[in-house]
Amino acid sequence: MEIKKLVLFSSDITKQKAFYQDVLGFKLAEIKSDYFNFNIGNSLLEFRVGSTYSPYHFAINIPAYKEKEAVHFLNDRLNVLSYNKQLIQDFENWNAKAVYFYDADNNIVEFISRRNLKNSTTKTFDLTQCLSISEIGIATTQLERTFEFFNKMNLSIYDGSFEKFLAVGDEEGLFICVHPDKKKWFPTDDKIHKSNFIACISIENCNYKVIFNQSDLSVLIE
């Protein structure tokens, strides 16, 4: 699965724009009074003014073995989130390593290097090595029902169970489905909210628009 476009809502679009443009250094593609967007590799990330807002978790794929360089890149600009005093988190069962940080809205952003994708490079890490958006978190108390929704689009379980955590999709694109009463967002103790989003995805040459509105999921075929 590829996440072609991800639309998130912001409590302060001016601060978010300054963070992604001036702190991280992304080149913005469109800037309007009520939204802005920019490319992250093969994906487009858009922030819109939202009347209701709560924090998100999303992840960005970077090349394999680039997590240490990503930490150095980020440390010059912001505070990297730690867990057990470590800045790089090792997910052995995923054959991946990840780095986390907050943006201006306290969204938890993740740079993740997945060894299985075999996309390593000798080039020094910079924003051109942000390859694509690869995860978006969903808060749901009905994990099995949520999986059934995605399974109709031929998405399968990547990891987890129906108890409290379920990753649906593949290493190019995952819906991270989490029970908000049973888990917090790793690597923090932050509460998981039912945060609205829109994700335009591609699965086996079929394009869909997935809309999450509080507890409701809907899909449009594009």
Summarize the structure.
14% of the residues lie in helices and 43% in strands. The chain has 222 residues and is mainly β. The strands form 2 sheets. Strands 5, 6, 7, 8, 9, 10, 11, 12 and 13 form a 9-stranded mixed sheet that branches. Strands 2-3-4-1-14-15-16 form a 7-stranded mixed sheet, covered by helices on one side.
What secondary-structure arrangement, pairings included, does this model have?
Layout: E1 2-10, H1 13-24, E2 28-31, E3 35-40, E4 43-49, E5 57-62, H2 67-75, E6 80-81, E7 89-91, E8 96-102, E9 108-114, E10 132-139, H3 143-151, E11 157-160, E12 165-170, E13 173-178, E14 197-203, E15 206-213, E16 216-221
Parallel strand pairs: 1-4, 5-9, 10-13
Antiparallel strand pairs: 1-14, 2-3, 3-4, 5-10, 6-8, 7-8, 8-9, 11-12, 12-13, 14-15, 15-16
Q: Indicate the overall shape.
A: globular
Mean pLDDT figure: 97
Share of residues in helices: 10-25%
Q: Measured on Cα atoms, how large is the radius of gyration? A: 16 Å
In the CATH hierarchy, the architecture is Roll
Low-confidence stretches: none
The CATH topology comes to 2,3-Dihydroxybiphenyl 1,2-Dioxygenase, domain 1
In this structure, how is the largest beta sheet organized? Answer: 9 strands, mixed
SS-derived structural category:
mainly beta
Span from first to last CA? 15 Å
Query: How would you spell out the order of helices and strands?
Result: EHEEEEHEEEEEHEEEEEE
* The level-1 CATH class: Alpha Beta
By CATH, the superfamily comes out as 2,3-Dihydroxybiphenyl 1,2-Dioxygenase, domain 1
Give the count of helical stretches. 3
| Beta-strand percentage range | 35-45%
Number of strands: 16
What is the total number of structural domains? 1
Domain Glyoxalase/fosfomycin resistance/dioxygenase: 4-47
Protein name: VOC family protein
